[in-house]
Amino acid sequence: MRAALIVLLTAAACVLAGCGGGASPAPTSAATATTAPPAPAATATSTVPTTPSGIATPPSLGGPIVTRVEASAPTTTPAPTLLLIGDSMAVGTAPLLPGLLPDWNIEVDALGGRITGVSMQIFRSHVDPVDVVAFSAFSADPPETVSTLEASVRESVERDYARCAIWATIYVRGKDYSAANAKLHELEREYPGKLLIVPWAETVARRPELLADGVHGTPEGFRVRARLYADAARRCVGET
Q1: Residue 84 CB coordination number (10 Å)
Q2: Could you read off the pLDDT of 26-74 as tens digits, one per residue?
Q3: pLDDT tens digits, one per residue of 195-217
Q4: Residue 169 CB partners (closer than 8 Å, separation 6+)
Q5: Per-domain residue ranges for the chain?
Q6: pTM score
Q7: pLDDT digits (tens, 9 = 90+) for 149-207
């Protein structure tokens, strides 16, 4: 099992570094990751998938990543559990979380270009409760569909499934997600302690060098984003 997990994390890190075409979904009975065949190089659209909002997803962040990594650090109490669901930003964040949360069990379901509605369908399909459910979503949705975001956030918090839910503010260069981000902070005030908002848009506004293409993080950008999610997860369970 340990060897399989090491192979899995190595493959996931390779996805982040852009050295492969992504990972194929794993069987539900075990955490595995395989490298998909390279995408055809005939046209730009065949190698760079485009989301419904027109955002190009780099091939290295296309995913999918469907995996579960068990805690590597010894604990005297049951390991906290984190479920991350989302899009290409989740694909880039996921490989870094086990190193930041070594005493946690982490499950990931991520795919480049995934819209929020699909993320919520995946969320509903999970029946085993977790301590923290985290979302990396809405950057592939039209900015004006704030009602979709609000309904999704409320569902993630109000469902009797996790101690709290984590969402992140959205930044896409050239698109105005200010209304969506304002709604996220409004909902965080409405659900104190149950909803934690990762200030991603605020972070990259101060440090634009963290973005590789106006949407996705550089390697350092994804390290910063992963730390923000890990810090929020620890706050949720009272570890900080």
Answers
A1: 23
A2: 433 333 333 344 433 332 222 344 455 555 666 778 778 888 888 876 6
A3: 999 999 999 999 999 999 999 99
A4: 177, 180, 181, 184, 185, 197, 198, 199, 200, 201, 202
A5: 2-236
A6: 0.77
A7: 999 999 999 999 999 999 999 999 999 999 999 999 999 999 999 999 999 999 999 99
Q: What is the DSSP string of 157-220?
A: HHSTT-SEEEEE----TTS--HHHHHHHHHHHHHSTTTEEEE-HHHHHHH-GGGBSSSSSB-HH
- Three-state DSSP class for residue 239: coil
- Please check whether residue 165 is in contact with residue 195, taking contact to mean a CB–CB distance below 8 angstroms: yes
Question: Longest C-alpha distance within the chain, in Å?
Answer: 54
User: Residue 49: is the preceding peptide bond cis (ω within 30°)?
Assistant: no
**Correct CATH for 2-236 of 3.40.50.1110, 3.40.50.1580, 3.40.50.980, 3.90.45.10:** 3.40.50.1110
Single-letter code of the amino acid located at 126: H
Q: Which residue has the tokens 């509605």?
A: 117
Query: Checking DSSP bridges between strand 164-168 and strand 195-198, what pairing results, if any?
Result: parallel
Strand partners, 110: 65, 86
Distance of CA 193 to the CA centre of its chain: 20
